Amino acid sequence: MTITRRSFLSASAAVAAMPVLGAKAAPLPREADIVVIGAGAAGVAAARRVMAANRKVVIVEAASQIGGRCITDGTTFDVPFDRGARWMHNPDTNPMIRLARSAGLDVSPAPSGQKMRIGRRNARAGETEEYLAALVRANRAIDEAARGKLDTSCASVLPKDLGDWAGAAEFVLGASFAGKDLKELSAIDKARAQDRNAPIACRQGLGTLIARLGEQAPLVLSTPASRIVWSNRDVSVETQAGKIAARAAIITVSTNVLTSGAIKFAPDIPKRTLDAASKLGLGSYDHIVLQLPGNPLGLSRDDILIEQSNSTRTALMFANIGGSSLCSIDVGGSFGRDLSGQGEKAMAAFAKEWITKLFGSEAAATVQKTAATRWNASPYVMGAMSAASPGGQLSRKVLAEPIGNMFLAGEATHETLWGTVDGAWESGERAADAALRKIGALKDEPADVPTQSMKKRRAPRP
Fold it and tell me: Is the overall model pTM greater than 0.85, yes or no?
């Protein structure tokens, strides 16, 4: 069956309206039209797209659960919290928000502002204005640098007179935004990032949403892909449970996993692709979650707080999550990476130290229970979100180029929504469309795009 774009979109809507049933976990099939590697947002979006085209698909996931970097923890505390991504964006255009409502989940606008702490007091109105002005100036300098012919680091173009607000501005624009310090971040990549000022939260958790949206897809968990044999005609995905023969594959693993060699390719994937992935290495971003009963910090529901800091040893607080007693102390960049490498005990100790610095030892003494994420140590992710190193922004476009009958997806392949679940979802749909066209299941020729194949590897390097 070959379908047109119009009938395909109608079928996609029908999939979204299906009643929610149990996930179709099953033994590894021997064949499929399209194999999807990874059950995160990109993989789920791709599988749903293939299902809407009435083609046989299976998701092969290395971890023991759906979600990728969107995991909702419902067991550590009495209320759920997201261990990875926690926001969606762009409510006017994001299909995930409509799908969340269709699945019976609750979505609502998240906090739009931040509170500034200076030592043990809140910033005064004038001080907050000074900070916001410094942030605007820093952003403007990065945007202006991005218009130049040569890419550079964000840190190298910052105004030199940000004064006491330099540390907070660098944290918010770098470690908190992309998981990397500004000296490691491409000015062009940062400037091209689409606005994310309208965050949307899912009360049951963003991980819960991804899992719910993936329930209809045939899925094999705890089954890492070890080797992919590919050509311009078909693919074979090898796992510990056997092989799957398919006409195409959609690969949604992170850039760090792709460059780690955890999945072997025969023949090797082009050096151009690996070079692009290496320039889009994952930043570090983790949550240290504390249970603080009785609201000893005196903050409101879902308050977001940062501090005036003169070093990278700082954090962002997401307080009283969903009206609960949970507060997340988020750490990122080089400091966050070093801290997470020391383990959960050291992370909890820092969080209590940070609260003591800002609110006093009495507040920190009320902590009842802690939990911490360590995404860098997760073998099937190896980090948080992709962030281009200086000179690497064009690598996102390269990473999205087809390789024979393989198609890469994930937030790293999105040029403006990188680092977001929105970008991951869109990339999965894009890759599925491309794969369906490749196997003749979707008749809607796209504009000419550069491709990589076994015979065409002379494209210029970015």
Answer: yes
